[in-house]
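Ticket closed. Logging final result for Cytochrome P450.
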Amino acid sequence: MDNERLLVSTFGVFAAAYVISNLYRTWVERRQLDKIPTVGPSGALSSYLGVYNLVFNGRDMIQKGYNKYRGGMFKIPGISKWTIVVAGPNMVDELRRAPDDLLSSMEAAADLIQMDYTIGPEIRLDPYHVAIVQSSLTRNLVECFPDVQDEIATAFAEHIPATEGRNLDYRTLNIDFTMNVVKAAIILNLFPNFLKPLAGRLLTKVPSSIKRAMMHLEPTINERLRQEEEHGKDWPGKPASLRHDSPLTTFTQVLFDLAARPSYVAALREEVEGVIREEGLTKVSLQKMRKLDSFIKESQRFGGGGARMVTMHRKVMKDFTFSDGTVVPKGHSIAVANFALHHDQVS
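Final structure:
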């Protein structure tokens, strides 16, 4: 009996300590967050209205915060956590240099597109594709140039004017899948965490999309696995990297901007043809196309990545302290006021 009482007492002490620890942590976190100015309502209930306002008037909210807190930071509400928006170049650099175990871009992306409920948790738990892009694909970019050049020429011939693509269903699948994930993520971010599994099952089209994709990819995957089993990992004719058929958003935006500003065509064409004539189409020759590089950067600043309200999303894995002493608590997100910063006449 005494042992049972001792056990109950011990459990009660640990439970009380756990509750007190959580309350203290919440109090400290609240004090840290209160030091960061808020754009939009910040009350326990009114902040939910700020989330919906962000969906419909996000750019105005971010711009208002940037104008008021330029060089510093401010916070905007989420359903369960805050997003701290950086509004100065120095802090952007601190954000860029922070290690992934402190500020994680992968975890931020998973939250942003609600990966567990739209694509599935497997990609978040085993991001094998990141290593492929950073190593195998990047190392073999030069070998991809002929394929890329052939694909561009074919795409122009097929789509300007538009006709059926090489594999219309597969291309449509790629485009629709991306849009479906983005749409579902926007909606899911409006739900509290406990409702997201149900909303994800009702809203996502991932299972049917994967089934369609496997109809196209399974024969190729099985053939490559057979070749590897029969001849080893370095089997004859093994592709150096994966072919990429989908049009790139960057290229599309550049094409639109070039069509809207035909006066730039002659100078860009002269530069590209001159470099290719002397160097050929290589990775090194692309670096010598400075006018083209400048045009692409400006195109992105105005209409591509530069047009996004915020970028460089990071999830705070451990309490993070900026050089000015501002502490962002674990679990919240940090991002950069991208559009405002890129269109600031002062900075």
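The first strand starts at residue 73 and ends at 77. No further action required.
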